[in-house]
Design brief:
Largest sheet: 6 strands, mixed
Strand order of the largest sheet: 10-9-8-21-22-23
Strand content: 25-35%
Distance between the termini: 36 Å
Number of helices: 13
Structural class: alpha+beta
Radius of gyration: 25 Å
Number of strands: 28
Oligomer: single chain
Helix content: 10-25%
Amino acid sequence: MALGAYHHLKYSCTQPCTPDAQTQSISRARPPAWQTLFLLLASIPILLSQPVRRVGPIAGAVTDTSLTLLWMGPPTDTYQIRYATLGNPLQTQWVVADTWGVARITLTGFPPRSHVFYQIFFRDTLWVQDTVRTFPPDGTPTYVRLAFGSCLALHDSAFLQLITTRFRPDLFVFLGDWTYPDNRFGALPDSSFFADSPALIRQVYEYRYWFPLPPDSGKTYRHFLRKIPIAYIWDDHDYIATDATNRWAIHYNYQQETATPIPIPLHVQRQALWGYQHFFPHYPMPIDTCIYQKISIGPVDLFLLDTRACRTSTHLAFYQDTLTGLWQFQEPPFHTLLGSEQRARFFQDLLTSSAPWKIIASSIVFAPRIHNLILSALNWQVLLGDSAYLLALGMADSWGGYPSETQLFLDFLTQANIQNVIMVTGDIHTGVMDTAQYAPIPELVASPLGQFPSSLGTLADSLGVPLWSLGQGITFPDDSSSNFGWIEVFGNDSLRMCLFTVRGIEIACWTMRNQLTPATTKPNLQTPQSSCQILYSSHSGTPLLICPTPTHYELWTIEGKRITTGNCTGWCPLATPPHAPPHSGIYLLHLPNTSQWMKIVAPH
């Protein structure tokens, strides 16, 4: 993440950069079988040179009736696991580690909100034991506790003890930069990407589950992973490298104040995705090229967005004017933060969600007004030179660097009347929140866990473009830069979001009441009269069709000629022909199954 850093980018475009390899799609997240076998054989010397230890387990993919345990050790080892809930006899299963030393087991059939006691034996010797609690039933108006954190570089166990004993959340969500593996296992340009080697990817997860803190702290950390259910989305440093996207990373040289775009080979991204799938107990991932996931916990639907693997690079939205030599911001047509496939699935899941509360987890900060800061920074180039451009480039590594897609998302929430949406973000090394004072939806920024503080909020305030309404400027001795986010959901009534220091000192809290009343409930899109809706992006004017169920449609000209047909489920952009005689730019959309006709106005 480059927010607030001053760098110099050694490349230029005399016009908006072309998509180049950015738009190449990845058909599958996993490498072909022959490639996996080859990489495994090639990595054997690296594996053999490293000490093999048993690490974990980590509790993940928890639901109201099941949970997954994953641990790592020597390949092909056999383990016995015994487990039970209160008042029930122990059950036994056997698990054999795979060739990477990964042992994974999903335990099912538990009552909601039950404490599952488990023991893991190796060679008839008890290795580890602990207890994990399942979620409350999906859709029930019950009490839910969630914790969030990012940018992990802890140096003591105070926070871990606090979370494990006092707060005990139903789920802890890591929002990215979990132990910074790009700095430890492969920092450009001195060495290759760590994701270039499957053996290094394995070491990343092994290190993450071991995390060699001081002896007592390390023990507490591992106890935390075994007991508290974990969900995880990556950011740039734990995905591939600094400011990494689907095809680019940025290497910064702070001494020379340079920043160089580095292409990411396709196999590196595929292996990063494979590593996440193989070494972390994740929830179902419906998109092959992203780690997008949806989690249901009582009255909450939690959406985990992948803002790295499917996005185009921020630097492609900047170009250098040939007359003035100044850098300008102009989004190319293909510029995207989420990617079309992830965005469509995310919007569809939002549209069909019946949960009263919708919490969106993003590894990068939301705050749409950052886009105003980007444009302001570019206006300073006459006075500050390249420093102003580099500041703008760094701030663009946020939702503010993708204003079209941000507006598309906000338009969707408005037009579909989706209420009670909260954005939880990380990355920028500061703990702040906005109560929908400066953005259309509230935001909780939970970052960092033991890292240096950022000055972005202070900079924004000084320039008269405040981004957050609570938490900014509040400091505490010894842990002013370390915090975590905390959300309590009180059934269908209200939601309270807070920031705490890693010592448990309250920084700020805010309560949000349920906005869903009989007069403002989301319209029933299942009825034939309103089975689908049309809305337009206020930024680009693109017509978009929203259909909650699979729907066949036909597009006609105003003159009565059918020009295209298609099928839509969820959120579908509608491609219209260019405006040329005899076309007027007005089209008719026909839904044959419901005999519904709608007028479409194409953008100029």
